[in-house]
């Protein structure tokens, strides 16, 4: 992983190239102050203040060039406004002319992410370093960049190397680094205590055996917060097998687990005053003679029985047992992440995760956090009017809705049945993948909703230094 601490550094007057920021309002006035040589150059290349437009400005000698780039608003920099520069500029040090980068530090670092673990040769550039006088903002921004990079790394890793055991190893590293307690339940104990997790994962090879992974951290008298993640390391669809095109990206089906592990590390590394309980239901939805079947009825940890209408609706099964376990400790807040439904992508596309919540204040805080971090969510209705679509003739509920409509909502309603009374709960149906690249956001594994949730947790619980 890139050492992000090298990419943002305190400004102590070091030699650095200047980055000029302009927007559509300020461009003409800024241009008047440039030298005749610079104005002639910009005119020759037909520079205009369009999105992500940038140009190299010649200096008095060949090594004294600077950069101009267009942003939406020079007074309010977004996370992504410097991302393209962070990706394409030559290695070296840079500083903004008359501005502090603020949130743009994140995009600058994010743009330098690379996943080359499986390449025999790499063509990576040296680091592009951004200087800032806002020293207090550096460490928190680096922490967020590292968290996003962790999600990307975990999701990008092929399923052969990122099975349940490898997910457990990541959790172990995080717990050990921050003084957390790791508990792993598998084998017969999993079958007896978490029957739905076991059923989903029992067809996999022994070295990809299912398990519930838990990290507990923090003081007992602090508010209890549970983070729950879907960790399906590969989803074949089970006996209701996916077509080849639908299976191609299913290494990303543990994206929910990647999000909560990265979020848990942010919580622990920052010392957020909460009692953290992170739970990952890890399994591979494989096919063998021991695979669970359509028509089977599973008993859940909660005691509810679930008829299997579709073995490809397995994520909600493992989350049901994990949510039940989380609720047994009576948390005041539960947040789950899951790559749960294709219906969510049909509704909102790959970039905008649906948010479901049973608490209006929590939902609003998540949405506000997403806006603040340029990591947007969109609230969807947790509408009980569709609950009858989960009814079944022979069990307490079915795992697949009886209608092709409202699939993301019925999936959330299924999860709601396993959320304890009295707990504020948010469910993020994240895609965890970018099908095409944008500045600072490469194609591949993606953290979508992570920074929004982190902003919410900080606002809700971090009162240090606040009146």
TrEMBL record:
Enzyme kind, highest EC tier: hydrolase
EC identifiers of the protein: 3.4.11.1
| Keyword Manganese carried by entry | yes
Single GO term (MF): manganese ion binding
**Record's Gene3D superfamilies?**
Leucine Aminopeptidase, subunit E, domain 1, Zn peptidases
Record's Gene Ontology CC terms?
cytoplasm
Where does the Cytosol aminopeptidase domain start and stop, copy by copy?
310-317
Q: Is the ATP-binding keyword given for this protein?
A: no
Q: Which UniProt keywords apply?
A: Aminopeptidase, Hydrolase, Manganese, Protease
GO biological process annotations for this chain's record? proteolysis
InterPro entries for this protein: Leucine_aapep/pepB, Macro_dom-like, Peptidase_M17_C, Peptidase_M17_N_1
Give the protein family. Belongs to the peptidase M17 family.
UniProt-recorded name of the protein: Leucyl aminopeptidase
The organism's lineage is:
Bacteria, Pseudomonadati, Pseudomonadota, Alphaproteobacteria, Sphingomonadales
């Amino acid at each position: 992983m890139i050492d992000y601490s090298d990419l943002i550094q305190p400004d102590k007057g070091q030699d650095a190239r200047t980055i000029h920021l302009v927007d559509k309002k300020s461009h003409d006035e800024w241009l008047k102050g440039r030298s005749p040589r610079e104005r002639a150059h910009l005119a020759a290349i037909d520079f205009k203040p369009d999105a992500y437009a940038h140009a190299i400005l010649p200096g008095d000698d060949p090594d004294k060039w600077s950069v101009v780039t267009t942003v939406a608003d020079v007074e309010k920099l977004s996370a992504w406004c410097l991302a393209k520069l962070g990706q394409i500029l030559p290695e070296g040090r840079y500083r903004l002319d008359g501005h502090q980068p603020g949130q743009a530090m994140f995009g600058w670092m994010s743009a330098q992410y690379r996943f080359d673990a499986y390449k025999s040769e790499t063509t990576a550039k040296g680091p592009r370093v951004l200087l800032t006088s806002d020293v207090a903002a550096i460490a928190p921004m680096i922490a967020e960049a590292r968290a996003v990079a962790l999600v990307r790394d975990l999701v990008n890793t092929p399923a052969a190397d990122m099975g349940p055991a490898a997910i457990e190893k990541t959790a172990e590293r995080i717990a050990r680094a921050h003084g957390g307690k790791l508990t792993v339940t598998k084998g017969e104990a999993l079958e007896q205590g978490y029957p739905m997790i076991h059923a989903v994962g029992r067809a996999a090879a022994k070295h990809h055996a299912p398990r519930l992974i838990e990290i507990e951290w923090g003081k007992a008298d602090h508010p209890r917060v549970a983070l729950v993640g879907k960790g399906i390391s590969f989803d074949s669809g089970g006996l209701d097998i996916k077509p080849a095109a639908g299976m191609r990206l299913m290494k990303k089906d543990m994206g929910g687990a990647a999000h909560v592990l990265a979020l848990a590390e942010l919580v622990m590394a920052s010392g957020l005053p909460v009692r953290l309980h992170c739970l990952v239901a890890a399994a591979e939805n494989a096919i063998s003679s021991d695979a669970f079947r359509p028509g089977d009825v599973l008993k859940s940890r909660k005691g509810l029985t679930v008829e299997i209408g579709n073995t490809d609706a397995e994520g909600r099964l493992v989350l049901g047992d994990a949510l039940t376990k989380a609720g047994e400790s009576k948390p005041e807040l539960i947040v789950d992440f899951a790559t749960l439904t294709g219906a969510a992508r049909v509704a909102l596309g790959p970039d905008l995760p649906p948010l479901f919540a049973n608490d209006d204040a929590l939902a609003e805080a998540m949405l506000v956090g997403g806006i603040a971090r340029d990591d947007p969510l969109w609230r969807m209705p947790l509408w009980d009017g569709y609950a009858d679509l989960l009814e079944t003739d022979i069990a307490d509920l079915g795992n697949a809705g009886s209608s092709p409509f409202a699939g993301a909502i019925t999936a959330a309603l299924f999860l709601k049945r396993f959320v304890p009374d009295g707990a504020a709960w948010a469910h993020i149906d994240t895609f965890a993948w970018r099908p095409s690249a944008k500045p600072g956001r490469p194609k591949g594994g993606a953290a979508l909703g992570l920074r929004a949730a982190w902003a919410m947790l900080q606002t809700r619980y971090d009162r240090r230094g606040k009146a």
